[in-house]
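SECTION: protein entry
WANTED: fold as tokens:
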Amino acid sequence: MKFEFTNLKYENFDKEFCEFEYCYLKSINRTYKYLSLRVNLLQLPVTKFSVRFQMLKRFNGYKPFLYDTTVDGCKFLANQKINPVAGFFFGLFSKYSNINHTCPYEHDVIVDKVAVNTMNNGLTNVLPFPEGDYLYNITWIAYGKPRAVVKVFGTLS
């Protein structure tokens, strides 16, 4: 089995809180693709945030599949063992990111060059998923208000 990025989208709900400097997929060749994003935080420091992670699978439109969980980001980063599901998905991109410490956050959020190979290994070897089209919907919530959502589309075949 093989995972492949197919699209990457974002929506900013609060332009006074954050702005996306970039958010893209880049294809280097037929086998190497990566995703990158940078979010400029405009109201620093951020001392309270949570993340809602939804995994959806395409069946006549995208339908909930397996995971829909919300995690207190500050507590999770202080102790990643409190939520193994969040830990698994965080592990897919954590080494490519500067989201690697507890609150407060006093800098922009950067996720740089998450290779499709990393996602492929996690979604086929570590925790196998069935073939199909998937949407990973990641909603960033700060101080109880949704601020932005990042949507990662992919195919497992």
Summary: The radius of gyration is 15 Å. The longest strand covers residues 145-156. The chain is about 15% helix and 50% strand. The mean pLDDT is 92.
